[in-house]
From TrEMBL:
This is Intraflagellar transport protein 80 homolog. GO terms for biological process: cilium assembly. Keywords: Cell projection, Cilium, WD repeat. Residues 616-763 form the IFT80/172/WDR35 TPR domain. The keyword Transmembrane does not apply.
């Protein structure tokens, strides 16, 4: 990815230093400079005309945020005479409505908060003041004691980050946000800073010629090498994936982790301010020599299987099929490309007003439909894709361009969401609730209706992902990373039995990704690459988790690596310096998934015998137990020398009824409620087996309840209960057992006879079912 830069020379517009600029929702750019002119520019970098002559020298512009579907027509500007002013648009001109005295000395910067309910001004006198929309002073936020060159509103719309000499400072303007925080950030005066509302990261630059990346708690994540000149401006792309850094004749594009995509050298002097368009595809810079720098994001690349898609120009995409060395050029003459995504046999491209859906086997006739708003995200899954925009939220489409659903909930706040906080599979869409970052809301893709329960966690969640394999909803899994960098796995639909919450897989996780076609899950954690061949093992038999997990040394990935893709057996990792490193896992795991998906169990056993890998045997054992294939489970557990588990499987095989075997397998998975339900729903119900199962689990109360309800085997429950108490030298204290003990006689010969009769009846019933099946 790089910037395609054009420069509007001073002869084309301003004749003095350009000091401030701002994009508006109509994708027009407003600029002002020391020549006291307010100019309007088109998106293509052409001068649209002069809006007004200003009375004073303007140092900053802040456009009033759009509210709902209505575009704002008001903006505020800061002036060197100590005032800030309110302007409104009147057709093709701008008019000053109000002048508000604010500071002693120049007002350096003004900014509206996210909803336009308050404005803060910062001045050379070191004061930060909070104003109402109409220009009335509400409060003085702080007195820094030195000039405040930059400040920014935090994602919570309350906390303010501001510079003061060499320090960065946070403070809540209403007293309801996070605690005040201050830290030494640079060795020189800090000139600029920005705080992204999606990824919650902070960037700063200063006179020490260095830019840095911080988290919201003041911990340094990245520090650049010294630049040739002072860092004069810095700004996040709205989607939080990258940021731009401005200096003398220098414009640098950087990834959110800090490494540089590209560095351009426009002849603009010092770039005093940088502003991005709302869709994040273009930026503008205010040049110190009066020029205006326009730059568009190009060379964005996507890869899937043997296809590579590259945005080589704002309106031109190049597609390469490496398998046959074929190239296609996709042109979009009307509008520039805003967002695109590749996968699942399709390329989805969005411009400002239209969406194009291409099949990888046919690049000539895409499905085209009109968008209701410009999307900020496109995510693909098997059969469906989603778009997200700040106005309409999340919208699900199929690959024919038909809208399928529009999942919604109160306080959705799509402007805070990105690809790490929205996940899509063929049947579920999961969205992180940004008002409560401990909750993930799940919806049915086809209807947009919320599922019965949400996924909740005890700590704030920072990343979510859904497995992409073709499994039923009951086996859909959500992986999440929380604020402590712990990786958890949880079912989307709660499962019956003991386990209902989230299961911790790993700690100190940098990033993770599901495989595109199977349930393999990979993560980079604590300097290691870890791959769980079958993470669903934690819901079947977590004792076998080590037998289905591989680890590799990850020192080659460096610090803070990010998993980019996990296709087939190949894993692509992005290092902290931006380099891509490829590693792989066993290709036999994917083959095993394919065989089992096709119910080719004999081939699965032959594959494991050929490979002779305990990890593969472990996967086969768990998968066969999950699919109730006892013969295969017996072979796999024997290969693993899991004697105790093997004995239990052999015990299950000797149970005559299918319901009895299924119930024991459910019990093996630590799901006693599910096991009991299987037995009681059999026709006729296997009541004695359900009672005996509860006795084995020492669930005495439930066993007695079933016996009383069925009016049989009450003496059996009382007899085993008495044996249990005698073994430990205890006396009965439960009132229910004491009540029935008075009226029921315990005769062990009768109990044994009834037990044998129940077994004979079950065996005869199973024989009759087998005969009728034949």
């Amino acid at each position: 990815m790089k910037l395609d830069v054009t420069v509007a020379a001073p002869t084309d517009g301003h004749t003095e230093m350009c000091t401030a600029l701002s994009w508006v929702s109509s994708n027009e750019l407003f600029t002002c400079s020391d020549d006291k002119q307010l100019l309007r520019w088109t998106q293509e970098g052409e001068l649209g005309g002069k809006m007004a002559d200003t009375e004073g020298f303007i140092t900053s512009i802040s456009w009033f945020p759009d509210v709902g579907k209505r575009s704002a027509n008001m903006f505020a500007c800061a002036c060197t005479d100590g005032t800030w002013r309110i302007w409104t648009l009147q057709g093709q001109n701008a008019r000053e409505e109000k002048k508000i005295p604010a500071h002693t000395g120049a007002v350096i910067s003004v900014k509206w908060n996210w909803d336009g309910s308050a404005l803060i001004s910062a001045g050379e006198d070191g004061e930060l003041k909070v104003w109402s929309r109409s220009g009335n002073l509400r409060s003085s936020l702080c007195s820094a004691g030195t000039a405040v060159y930059c400040f920014v509103w935090g994602p919570d719309n309350d906390t303010v980050l501001y510079t003061a000499g060499k320090t960065l400072n946070m403070k809540s303007h209403q007293g309801t946000g996070r605690k005040a925080l201050s830290w030494n950030a640079h060795d020189g005066i800090i000139m600029c800073c920005d705080w992204n509302r999606i990824n919650d990261l902070i960037v700063s630059g200063g006179e020490d010629c260095i830019y840095k990346v911080w988290d919201a708690y003041g911990r340094q994540l990245f520090q650049s090498q010294p630049n040739a000149s002072v860092i004069t401006s810095i700004s996040w792309c709205p989607n939080g994936e990258c940021f731009a850094v401005g200096a003398f004749n220098s414009l640098r594009l950087c990834d959110k982790t800090g490494w540089s995509y590209s560095r351009e050298q426009p002849q603009s002097g010092s770039i005093m301010e940088i502003a991005w368009t709302s869709d994040g595809t273009q930026l503008a810079g205010a040049g110190g020599n009066g020029s205006v720098v326009f730059a568009q994001l190009v060379q964005r690349k996507l890869e899937w299987e043997n296809f590579e898609v590259t945005l080589i120009e704002p309106k031109l995409i190049n597609v390469q099929d490496a398998s046959i060395d074929q190239y296609e050029r996709l042109e979009f003459p009307r509008e520039r490309v805003v967002e695109m995504a590749l996968g699942w046999g399709h390329l989805v491209v969005a411009t400002a007003t239209q969406c194009f859906i291409y099949g990888v086997n046919n690049w000539n006739t895409p499905h085209i439909f009109d968008l209701r708003a410009t999307p900020s995200l496109i995510s693909l899954a098997d059969g469906y894709f989603l778009t997200m925009d700040p106005t309409h939220g999340v919208i699900i489409y199929n690959y024919e361009g038909r809208q399928v659903s529009n999942p919604r909930f109160n306080n959705l706040q799509p402007e805070f969401l990105n690809r790490h906080t929205v996940a899509l599979s063929k049947d579920v869409v999961a969205i992180l609730d940004r008002t409560d970052s401990k909750t993930v809301r799940c919806f049915d893709v086809a209807t947009g209706k919320a599922l019965s329960t949400n996924v909740t966690h005890k700590t704030e969640i920072v990343q979510i992902a859904l497995n992409q394999s073709d499994v039923p909803l009951s086996e859909r899994r959500l992986a999440l990373i929380d604020r402590n960098r712990d990786l958890y796995l949880t079912p989307v639909v709660p499962q019956p039995g003991i386990f209902r919450g989230v299961y911790k897989l790993q700690t100190q996780v940098d990033s993770m990704a599901w495989n595109d076609s199977s349930d393999m899950l990979a993560a980079i954690a604590d300097g290691r690459m870890i791959c769980w061949y079958y993470p669903n093992v934690v819901f079947v038999d977590r004792d076998l988790l080590p037998s289905t997990t591989i680890e590799k040394d990850g020192s080659e990935f460096g610090k803070v690596p990010q998993v980019s893709t996990f296709y087939g057996s190949r894993l692509t990792v992005r290092k902290a310096d931006g380099a891509l490193v490829t590693t792989s896992v066993s290709c036999y795991a994917s083959m095993l998934y394919r065989y089992i998906g096709e119910s080719r169990w004999e081939e699965s056993v032959r594959l494991c015998r050929f490979v002779k890998d305990d990890k593969l045997w472990g996967c086969l054992a768990v998968m066969s137990i999950q699919n109730r294939k006892l013969e295969t489970a017996e072979i796999a557990l024997a290969a693993l020398t899991e004697v105790d588990k093997l004995e239990f499987i052999l015990h299950i095989k000797n149970i005559p009824s299918e319901e009895g075997r299924n119930a024991e397998l459910a019990l093996y998975r630590r799901c006693p409620d599910e096991a009991e339900g299987i037995l009681l729903q059999a026709r006729p119900p296997l009541t004695y087996r359900a009672i005996k199962m509860n006795i084995r689990l020492f669930r005495w109360g439930r066993a007695l309840e079933l016996a009383v309800k069925s009016r049989s085997h009450v003496d059996t429950v009382l007899g085993y209960r008495q044996k249990y108490l005698d073994q430990f030298g205890k006396k009965e204290t439960d009132k229910r057992f004491l009540q029935y003990a008075e009226s029921v006689e315990i005769d062990w010969e009768a109990i044994q006879a009834k037990k044998q009769q129940e077994k004979d009846d079950e065996r005869a019933r199973s024989g009759n079912l087998s005969s009728s099946g034949k």
